[in-house]
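Reminder: ligand-aware prediction takes two inputs, not one.
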Amino acid sequence: MANETKMVILTPHVHVFHIDDGADSHPGGSNNYFVGDPKEEMLLIDTGDHKRVWTDALLQAWRDLGSPKITAILITHGHADHYGGLDRVWDAMHAPVRAHPKMSKILKDLVPEDALKPLKNNEVLRTGGGVSLKAIFTPGHAIDHTCFYFAKEKVLFTGDTILGSSSATMSDLKSYMKSLEKLSHLGHESIASAHGALIPAPRGKRLVQVYIGHRTEREQQVVASLQKGLSTVDEMLKDIYPKNLKKGLRESAKRNIRNHLDKLMKEGKVAESQPTYALGSASAKKAASKNGAGRANGKAPAKAKASAGKK
Ligand SMILES: [Zn+2]
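Here is what comes back for the chain with zinc ion:
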């Protein structure tokens, strides 16, 4: 399958390498970024997945820029579609690899250990064209996630914390909300995310707030489902999401609901009731799991109920 690619200039010092990778989980393709001055030096943000076609196209984009010296290869987080091409990209660029310290374990299998320089929170990275980016640790989508802020041109590189064409997923909603709060104080105007469309000013300015609003609304929907007496994630999925939700998105929607339930439980607003068990034949088990009250697939059915009186 042909993966179409293109280069776009977002602001004077931000060159976007875009690839239509056709993934269901993040509609609108993916973006890697060259930031700086191609006549001097640049930073590269993310190296795409391991597919050779992606790496080849990314390296071709770099050569089209005149093969500028890469000051550092920045990785937003430890998901394979962000660092998968790193070994081959590093072979071509030989630049220090900078990422959250929690990513070192993954990265040291891809590049020589002395090429790894873990980031510090709020560290400033400089490159050609007088460009400097600030690394901001933003756990939530992944525990090792970093966003980068380019204050001079008011561009926020959000990795998978904020996406251009769909809503982000997260592994820990509580820290995710804290990270969004952090980003909301930056004064950015454009959002340059790892997947989907670029969000220029003025919409980029508001997008963090839109995300915070969206999460808050989703939480209210989960609470409303619980108040209706719905107690399983499947029931809540049907209640909250549109009927025609794509199959590929269903799992991440369920994960979202579970994340909200986890957050509400951490805050003492929801209690999880124990799953029930019964001895019996396979058909009885099947019936039990249909009712959401068994461990037929080895997973807890994630029953939950709102505790009365609390909001
Ligand atoms: Zn991703």
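The first strand starts at residue 5 and ends at 11. Residues 203-227 form the longest helix (25 residues). We will return to this case in the review session.
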